[in-house]
Amino acid sequence: MRTTAPRRWLREPLIRFLLLGALIYVGALVRAGALDDRAGTRDELRVPAEAVARARDEWRQKTGRDPDGAETRAAVEPFVREELLVREARRLGLERGDLVIRRRLAQKMRFVIEELATAPEPTDVELEAWVRAHPERYRSPARVSFEHRFFARSQRGDATAQDAAAALDLLDAGASPESAGGDSFAHGREFTARSEDELRRLFGPAFATAVLELEPGAWRGPIASSFGLHVVRVTRRDAGAPARLEDVREAARADWRAERRARAQEEELRQRLARYEVILEEVRDA
Q1: Could you write out the DSSP letters of every residue in the chain?
Q2: Are residues 127 and 257 part of one domain?
Q3: What is the pLDDT of residues 165-218, one digit of tens each?
């Protein structure tokens, strides 16, 4: 009987509750002591020299004099508070569930990788090979010279197409351009050595494409533009020529180095990714 009494005592619910409470209390005391020991140390919050200089400059602009020590500390207080909030947010893990913050951090890391990724200066041999591999990028554009008679929709309305066709008939019959009629055109009646891009900007893409396909000599049309209808005679057409390195060296150099930097950035990302094991969590159907 004497050997079983302590066991009965331990089985009492009240006694077990008191023991559990005592253990929790002791644990709290131990934890509080650890926190007290830690409270004696302080994390360092260092204000970068550039932030101090910027704060002093702003103070100087506002007051017209240099700040003293206390005023400098007051001037950097906004930076200190912002840094404090950032650190506390990280300590609580607030950035982990915020998509905007994640994307901003990823963007900043991309900037870091871009700075790390460098490209050497290309040799002439490398540039020659690069230009040959991208002929259309550096080829001089085709150019066309032409004269035209213009018929404005804003002035002629529904009669625009009929008037332009009549002018074309006159020109085909040998009439002079002046006698064929037409409206004044703000950019002139003759154009010399214009590229497709230039014609697109001035007349629109449909006109540019059509004029570049015309053979020199005869009047053609009507061709529509952003302004109205045109009867056009091409006087000269120069096909584009392959680029010479001396003409496109700077552009080719910039493109070559940009491509090498992109390769270096991709390699840097791959090396960093190799440190991780990517695991896809199972998607459970709802």
Answers
A1: -TTTHHHHHHH-HHHHHHHHHHHHHHHHHHHHHHHHHHHT-----PPPHHHHHHHHHHHHHHHSS---HHHHHHHTHHHHHHHHHHHHHHHTTGGGG-HHHHHHHHHHHHHHHHHH---PPPPHHHHHHHHHHSHHHHSPPPEEEEEEEEEEHHHHGGGHHHHHHHHHHHHHTT--GGGG--B--TT-SEEEEEEHHHHHHHH-HHHHHHHHTPPSSSEEEEEE-SSEEEEEEEEEEE---PPPHHHHHHHHHHHHHHHHHHHHHHHHHHHHHTTS---PPPPPP-
A2: yes
A3: 888 888 887 888 887 778 888 888 888 888 888 888 888 888 898 888 888 888
Full-model pTM: 0.46
Clarify whether residues 156 and 285 are in a common domain: no
Q: How many domains does the chain have?
A: 4
Residue 208 in domain: yes
Query: Could you list the residue range(s) of the whole structural domain that residue 72 is in?
Result: 49-116
